[in-house]
Specification:
Length: 263
C-alpha cells in the first residue's frame, strides 16, 4: 500500500473521529443547556392539608366555624393551635431552583349543586341563589339556616412572585374560599342533626355526591416560560381525636377535621 493510500485512509478515519466527537460534544451541550434551564425553573407545590374545626353556627351559641390548618402527615405543635380563623390559608412552596413570577390562581366549585345536595337532606330545606352577587341562602322550615358568599369562586387572584424555598420561605398566603369549607361542614351538621352545642358523634363523611373543588394555577419563570397545573381535592370529614367522650362531642372545642387530599 502506497503512502498516498495510507494518508487517504488516515484522513477518512480522522474525519470519522471528528464527526463522532462533534456529536458527543453536541449531546454534552444539550445536557448543559438542560441543566442550565433547570437552574431557573420554578416548581410550585403545596402539601395536602387538614383543617381542625370548632364552632357551631346552628347551636344555641351561634358561634362561627373556626379553622386551623396543618399539613397532613406532619406533627402538630400544641402552641400553634391558637391560630384559628374563619378563613383557612395555606402557602405555595417553590421547590424549584428559579423564581416563580406572575402567579395566577383560581378556585372552581359548583356551589349551586352543593346547595341542592344539602337541601336534599330534608324536604324542609330550600335555597335561593343570587346569580348577580354569587351568593346562596339556605332556609329550613321557613327559618334562616345558612348563607354563603361565593365571589371567590371563579375569581382570578394574583401573587407577584415566590422565591425558591432554598432562598426564602413564602409568606404570601393563599385563602381557601369560605363557601367551600362552610358548605361541607353544614352538610355534616345537617345530615347528623347537630343543632346543639353538645351533640352526638357523627360518622366518617366522604362527600361522595358533592362537587369536587379544583384549584388552577399558572406561573412563569424568568425567561417567560409558562407553567400550568390543576389540582382536584377529595375532602373527608371525621371526628377529632381530641374529643374524649365516645358518644357526645362539644362543638365549641376542636371536634372535627376536614382533610383535603389530592386526587
Amino acid at each position: 500500500m502506497s503512502s498516498t493510500e495510507i494518508n487517504f485512509y488516515v484522513d477518512i478515519f480522522a474525519g470519522i473521529g471528528t464527526f463522532i466527537s462533534s456529536i458527543i460534544a453536541l449531546f454534552a451541550l444539550k445536557e448543559v443547556i438542560k441543566q442550565r434551564r433547570a437552574m431557573y425553573q420554578p416548581k410550585l407545590y403545596f402539601n395536602e392539608f387538614s383543617l381542625s374545626v370548632k364552632g357551631n353556627p346552628h347551636s344555641e351559641m351561634k358561634s362561627l366555624y373556626l379553622y386551623y390548618l396543618h399539613n397532613l402527615y406532619e406533627p402538630v405543635r400544641e402552641d400553634s393551635r391558637k391560630g384559628y380563623s374563619v378563613s383557612a390559608q395555606f402557602f405555595f412552596e417553590n421547590i424549584g431552583y428559579g423564581v416563580a413570577s406572575n402567579i395566577n390562581y383560581e378556585w372552581t366549585f359548583d356551589y349551586v349543586k352543593a346547595a341542592k345536595i344539602i337541601c336534599n337532606l330534608d324536604s324542609k330545606f330550600n335555597f335561593r341563589n343570587d346569580k348577580e352577587d354569587k351568593s346562596i341562602v339556605i332556609i329550613f322550615d321557613n327559618i334562616y339556616f345558612s348563607s354563603y358568599s361565593c365571589d371567590d369562586i371563579g375569581n382570578n387572584k394574583k401573587i407577584d412572585f415566590i422565591k425558591p424555598e432554598s432562598l426564602q420561605q413564602n409568606f404570601k398566603p393563599t385563602s381557601i374560599p369560605i363557601c367551600i369549607t362552610n358548605m361541607h361542614m353544614d352538610y355534616v351538621m345537617a345530615k347528623n342533626k347537630m343543632f346543639s352545642e353538645k351533640c352526638k358523634r357523627f360518622n366518617f363523611e366522604e362527600f361522595d355526591d358533592f362537587p369536587i373543588p379544583k384549584l388552577n394555577i399558572s406561573y412563569h419563570d424568568i425567561a417567560g416560560k409558562k407553567y400550568e397545573t390543576e389540582y382536584s381535592f377529595n375532602i373527608h370529614c371525621y371526628n377529632s381525636f381530641r374529643q374524649v367522650d365516645d358518644k357526645l362531642i362539644d362543638t365549641e372545642n376542636d371536634y372535627a377535621n376536614l382533610s383535603f387530599n389530592l386526587k
